[in-house]
Each structure stands twice: as structure tokens, then as C-alpha cells.
Amino acid sequence: MTLLEARDIEKSFGRTHALHGVSVAIRSGEVVAITGPSGSGKSTLLHCLSGIMRPETGEVHYDGRRIDTLDETARTRLRREAFGIVFQFGRLVPELTVAENVALPLLFNGDGREESARVARGWLEQMDVLAVADARPGELSGGQLQRVAVARALVTGPKVVFADEPTGALDSVAGEKVLGLLLAAARVNGSTVVIVTHDNQVAAHADREIVMRDGAAAGVVA
Length: 222
Ligand code: ADP
Ligand code: ADP
Prior knowledge:
Elements: E1 2-13, E2 16-27, E3 31-35, H1 42-49, E4 57-62, E5 65-66, H2 72-82, E6 83-86, H3 98-108, H4 113-126, H5 142-154, E7 160-164, H6 172-187, E8 192-196, H7 200-205, E9 208-213, E10 216-221
Parallel strand pairs: 3-8, 3-9, 6-7, 7-8
Antiparallel strand pairs: 1-2, 1-4, 4-5, 9-10
This protein binds adenosine-5'-diphosphate (ADP) (2 copies).
């Protein structure tokens, strides 16, 4: 069953046509890698699929409903309820501790403070960053930030996990660990996983690869 779909979407930034006429359909439980050269529109496609950005034309559908026409509040609610997003460079809240950052999506969804803190620490332990649970994001290395960002995205058991270069700042051992947890989210929880990546290792483990070139989906590798 198709869970997430972009139909002929276009997105421009000034004179830059980041996406022109991209259509992709992603099935429930699938692990999809979006690859292609820098500037080819990978992040923009991810942002449009995850409701962070609205394309200028075309449509985005999630779970049988059109989401690109929803207002900001409704798209934010959808992201909190159904999506987990690993941003490039982590984008954690600098004033909060690492553990508080990871607990935040649970609190937004109405879970209790103690339960959220407990679950957040469990994820930090799995990502081998429990030692920095009480530090602020500014004190962390790039690799630690990325692992915390992955923990924060997975903590709610989201229907769809979106990740922008989740292994980019990691050495190969840490990268494999992060990849393993993203794949487990799909295989164990049934999450659908969409990963923008330059990492051949990540692409090799995906069910399917969508190759972007100059703002278009140039091909699909099964
Ligand atoms: P990729 O993820 O493949 O590197 P992006 O989707 O980030 O590609 O960018 C596609 C094109 O759109 C690039 O030319 C990039 O510079 C441009 N772009 C992306 N985001 C913005 C933005 N917020 N403002 C202006 N240009 C942007
Ligand atoms: P990538 O190439 O992997 O997408 P970038 O460093 O280009 O990574 O993008 C990081 C952020 O900067 C994104 O939010 C993107 O939308 C924005 N961005 C990318 N290109 C531009 C640009 N030319 N002008 C303004 N913002 C941009």
C-alpha cells in the first residue's frame, strides 16, 4: 500500500528550481534512500514529503489524505503524531539538555514527565550517548549530536522516519550503528524510513533508491 506520495511537485527558491515535477510513491514499511549529487533537490524533496515545506505545485499525500494544503498548525500536528525527523546537523534545542531534547516529542504527545524521561534515556543508551544525557547540545561533538538527533526522531515510534544525512558526521562504526537502528525501526516497528544520503552503505541497505538529478527523480533502483 502506498503510504506517502508526491505527485508532480515543484519547488523554487528565487530563480533556483530545486524540484521540477517530481513524483514518488513510497509503500508502508519500505526503506527508501534518496541519493544524487549535492544540490540535486534531495533535502527539498524530503522537506516537501515531511510537510516542513509546501511545494508550489503538485500534491503530497500521506495515508490517503492530501497534506500539502494543510495549514502550518495541522502539518505540525501531523509531524508530531506520525513522523520522526532527523535534520541535518541535528537541530536540537540548545537551552535544553540532551535528555530533555529526546523526551520532548513524548511530552508533546501527552506522555508523563517521568515516563518520557525514562524512555528518552533508554534511547540514549541504545545510541551510546547516555554519558552526555545531562549536557547541552553545544557541548557535543558532531557525531554525538547526530546520534542524539536519531534518538529524538525514533523515540515516539513514528509511522514515518525522515532522515537527512543521518550518518554524515559519523565514522563507519557509528554510522553502521545508526543505520542499524533506522533499519530496525522499519523491520521491528514497521516504520517507513526515508533517508537522504551520500553514504553507499546506507543506499545498499535500502529496499529502493530514488536517484535525484537536477531537481528531478532520474531513476529508481530496486
Ligand atoms: P541537496 O539536498 O540534493 O543537496 P537541496 O534540496 O538542498 O539539494 O537544494 C536544491 C537546490 O535548491 C540547490 O541549488 C540549493 O542551493 C537550493 N536551495 C535549497 N534550499 C534553499 C533555500 N532555503 N533558499 C535558497 N535556495 C535553496
Ligand atoms: P544539502 O545540500 O545537503 O541540502 P545545505 O547545506 O545545502 O545541505 O542545506 C542546509 C539548509 O540550508 C537547508 O535548510 C536548505 O534549505 C538551506 N539552503 C540550501 N541552499 C541554500 C541557499 N542557496 N540559500 C539559502 N538557504 C539554502
